[in-house]
Amino acid sequence: MQELNMRNYAHLGDAVWELFVREHIVDLCQKPKDLHKMTTLRVNCSYQSEMLNKIEEELTEEEQEIKRRARNMEVPIARRNNQSEYRQATAFEALLGYWYRENKERLEYFLEKLLKEILK
User: Fold this and answer.
1) Which three-class secondary structure state does DSSP give residue 72?
2) pTM to 2 decimal places
């Protein structure tokens, strides 16, 4: 399988994270408004930045390199007021996208690890 560029991994990882969050949040509430609020609290750059911090120590050298490359991508003008969080969130998404394409076992390991965080 051909390796994607970091922006494409991040794009894919964003979808993986949102689906994972939605899949687990849907059991926690009945009202659409509450469901939306619980999801958006977990699918945003500051929350994703926190999630990266929780798994960072367990990343391999190769994963650290993916994180570094994704974090160093150019930041869109609209996101420049919160560059640090945006860069961390992009790195988190790129890792998820990378694992989704290249190593599903590693993806499942980290998602399972983060599950307790999203259920808080």
Assistant:
1) coil
2) 0.91
